[in-house]
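Sequence design from tokenized structure. All designs in this work follow the same two-part layout: the structure record, then the generated sequence. An example of the structure record is given first.
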């Protein structure tokens, strides 16, 4: 028994009232009464303790899934589709473990870029851009999102469709919702996944994704799929798993819907000649380039910033000794896709390499 539990039991046995506490401390202890009290306290604690050890069981999960099924039926999901969707849902402790795990070692942005944007991926990105150029440029014009950013996101999310995840999306989302720390998020996405099946975009057996429920070549969560996925080829299915036209258009539609500027870029690496007054992605920290120039910010090669009417945020993902960037509105849009500044920089960096052709 842990010290924490013992302390709780002692508190329960001695601090009901001032009188009973005094009696307990000054009169002989009735062992039978004490044992009975401890037994009752342990029983009550076991029934009400918040520990995941008590809740995360196959039996508990099955009860939880039964509740999800009832809620899904109340939301109007087709009964036959529900029976098929729920037939193979199983508890996946590995996804809960993955969700709780934290990296033991903090990597730097340089480390991250070395793994996310190695030369071999740049080579493949350029090849994919050229191979799909006609389709990419068509979609880029329609949605106002430069093709190189579509390819950069595609490459970062799924290695151009090669790595989509092999977890059952329904089992993963149900397991994460059952764990409870972010129940609403995963529960809402679980119901969104059922809606995707109900609309006929994919078969339940093929509904695979990452351990967190992200799906397809775009790695959309189900809610993002419902909001942004596009049936670009007009076959009646929004196929982000196997149809490039739908994949590219869905990426472009997300960025366009979230405020992408087709005339702008993402940012630039810079250097500091003196300490800056503030930094970070808060909207209040976005200032004109002239402001940053007057505060000693220079291009990476040391020359003056361009004389352009553009607002920018200054970010230092690894502090003043690491890489420093001025980032524009489009970077803030990338942050809506993924809140990691490392991720945003990697997408921007890959897009620049695609633009240069190597």
């Amino acid at each position: 028994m842990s010290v924490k539990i013992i302390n709780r039991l002692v508190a329960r046995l001695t601090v009901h009232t001032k009188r009973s506490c005094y009696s307990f401390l000054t009169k002989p202890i009735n062992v039978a009464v004490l044992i009975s009290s401890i037994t009752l306290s342990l029983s009550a604690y076991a029934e009400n303790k918040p520990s995941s050890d008590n809740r995360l069981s196959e039996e508990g999960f099955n009860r939880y899934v039964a509740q999800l099924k009832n809620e899904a039926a109340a939301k109007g999901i087709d009964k036959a589709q529900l029976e098929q969707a729920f037939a193979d849902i199983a508890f996946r402790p590995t996804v809960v473990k993955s969700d709780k795990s934290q990296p033991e070692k903090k990597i730097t942005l340089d480390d991250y870029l070395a793994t996310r944007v190695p030369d071999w991926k740049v080579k493949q990105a350029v090849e994919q851009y050229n191979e799909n150029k006609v389709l990419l440029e068509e979609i880029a014009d329609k949605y106002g999102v430069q093709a190189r950013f579509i390819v950069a996101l595609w490459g970062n999310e799924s290695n151009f469709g090669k790595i989509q995840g092999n977890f059952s999306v329904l089992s993963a989302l149900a397991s994460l919702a059952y764990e409870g720390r972010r129940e609403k998020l995963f529960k809402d996405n679980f119901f969104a996944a059922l809606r995707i099946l109900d609309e006929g975009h994919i078969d339940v057996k093929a509904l695979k994704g990452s351990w967190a429920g992200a799906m397809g070549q775009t790695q959309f969560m189900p809610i993002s799929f419902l909001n942004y996925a596009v049936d670009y080829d007009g076959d009646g299915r929004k196929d982000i798993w196997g149809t490039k036209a739908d994949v590219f258009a869905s990426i472009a539609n997300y960025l366009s819907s979230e405020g992408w500027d087709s005339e702008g870029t993402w940012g630039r690496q810079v250097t500091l000649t003196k300490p800056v007054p503030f930094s970070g992605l808060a909207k209040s920290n976005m200032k004109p380039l002239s402001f940053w120039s007057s505060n000693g910010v220079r291009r990476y090669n040391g020359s003056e910033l361009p004389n352009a009417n553009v607002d920018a945020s200054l970010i230092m993902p690894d502090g003043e000794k690491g890489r420093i960037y001025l980032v524009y509105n489009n970077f803030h849009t990338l942050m809506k896709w993924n809140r990691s500044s490392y991720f945003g920089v990697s997408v921007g960096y890959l897009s620049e390499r695609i633009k240069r052709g190597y």
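The two ends are 61 Å apart (CA to CA). We note this feature because it recurs in several other targets discussed in the main text.
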